[in-house]
Predict the structure of ArsR family transcriptional regulator.
Amino acid sequence: MPNSSRLDEIDRRLLRVLQADGRISNAELAERCSLSPSACSDRVRRLREGGYITGFAALLDPEKIGRGVLIFVEVVLDRTTPEVFETFAAAARRAPDVLECHMVAGGFDYLIKARVRDLAEYRKFLGEVLVRIPGVRETRTYAVLEEVKSTTQLPV
């Protein structure tokens, strides 16, 4: 499978359509991308095998499942050693409230995106999980007041 600079326009169209509707039938996908169903199926299989498509998922409404509060947290570690990084990363992976955790360059070490029921639930997560991770020196919390844009679709 070619790298991203070698994807042809049909591959890019397939990826755009699948990002918008991962449940589309192969027949409908083929029609929308001007392919035969077998050629469409082959291309999608190659895109999956090549790692361009990493999976399919249902997107849930956070409000309806009791996770309406979105929080970002900057985390500063007390030391920047491989052991501290790995300990923190492993703990973040285990925490169900953490949706994303990114090691970043700049004035702090990690940026966490979390979803919780309410601020009391976040306070519990902060006190019982986050600040108890060995190596955490400081956190800064940002509660989201309004989600202006939230998408899972990458420009292709």
The chain has five helices and four strands. Helices lie at 9-20, 26-32, 37-49, 82-94, 119-128. The chain has two domains: 7-49, 69-143. The CA atoms of residues 21 and 85 lie 37 Å apart.
